Amino acid sequence: MSDSAPSAANKPRVRFAPSPTGYLHVGGARTFIFNWLYARHTGGTLVLRLDDTDVERNTEASVQSIFEGLRWLGLGWDEEYKQSERLALHRQAAQDLFAKGLAYRDFTPAHAEADDTSSGQSSAQGAWLFNPGMRELSREESDRRAAAGEPFALRYRVPRGQSRTLRFTDSVYGEQSKQADEVEDFALLRSDGMPTYHLASCFDDADLRISHIIRGQDHLTNTFKHLLIFEGLGAPPPQFAHLPLLVAPDGAKLSKRKHGPVVSVTTYRDAGFLAGAFVNFLCLLGWSPKNDREFLTLDELTAAFTLEAVNRANAVINFTEDDPFDPKALWLNAEHLRALPVEQLSACIQPFFEQAGLDAPPEKLLAVTPLIRERIKLLRDAVSAADFFFVKELAPYDPKELVPQKGDAALARRVLEHAQQVLATIPFDTDSLDETLRAAAAQLGLKAGQAFQPIRVAVCGRKNAPPLFETMAVLGRDVCLARIRQALESLQSLA
Ligand code: GLU
User: Fold this and answer.
1) Is residue 450 domain-shared with residue 363, that is, in the same domain?
2) For residue 315, what are the β-bridge partners?
3) 256: annotated active-site residue
4) What is the mean pLDDT of residues 42-64?
């Protein structure tokens, strides 16, 4: 198979097919993104299909949460379907397979739902394969029992005793094969008449003319069953590409039960990842571009993406209990933040101030944004980096912080009193502040760093703060002087 763009009449059609049984998982998001990239790279079509035939496990909340996660990614899709609206088609397909003799009714109560080993034939490995009594039931008896209302599951009649090998070439995992004799007579319809995942998925893939199935590696072994269904439906099987598993640092498969919110896409959104950075991060889990670059825009990812470059090895997401985010994800987010135009970044951080209950007027936030841009990794970090711009009263700090290194409270007082005087009259812009405060330091016989610390702590309430003159210019004269006055008062407690 080649990734080069096919002729217009023959563009790829791919699908993302989540089951709405939980929130959008990082693994699901990666599958979606790889499908999206493949579609966009090849000029093809991306179908979103909700695999919602498992009525007992589906929830509306999960449907909403999947859409919420996908919308946040901001990539979009081209066509949308719900399997629950296609049940009549699935049942008809099952009926057709039955009519062709490729499926049979299984009236065994234990088999009406799931496969088990309670009776029937087993493989060499002991796995249940089929129940001969049911597989060989005459058509008359099968019809009679069905007409009498006896519940049954419909099973695929997997070819037996023919030494048949099922084969496919996976775009990622290469040649795959399995003896048909080792595949159990899997269910197509449950006893409640609902199609199974295997039937609904393959029928829809064929009916929606899906050309490439790009999905998690956990479905690799299902593919042998799917080959049989495509064959039974008389449809050529699509090209398969299975994606390596995402695993936790200890190698365990990522799961919401075990790993909690770190596996949910909205956790990243709520912490202040940019969707573009998150997409970039997920792409590097199991795929890498030829030049091994890591920071990539969506256009660069789209241009570089090929299925052949997907790796087979499990991809590890690094996190700890204290630090839920992979250091590479944080690094990428910081890079993407810095690459944003300041207006856009400012608009992205605004909601985090609102959430924190801080009134951050857009114009002032726009002036603050360049001062903190280099200091944040997550959008939410902007609040702790810049809250002092937007509070009326600084949070209490230890007055000892005002005392410069190799100095004492008296020195801090001298610096602040001097600053108070000179700041009262000068124009309050960055250049004037720079010039005036440097001259003040020299006049007091101090190094700039020594002189600026009391001023920085007085106006910001902390030592670690954005560049001083720019910060003071944004805060304005009144706020700076009021905070210096307060600092002088608090220094009295050190006397
Ligand atoms: N609904 C299935 C899942 O969420 C889809 C698997 C597939 O892509 O075939 O795992």
Assistant:
1) no
2) 246
3) yes
4) 95
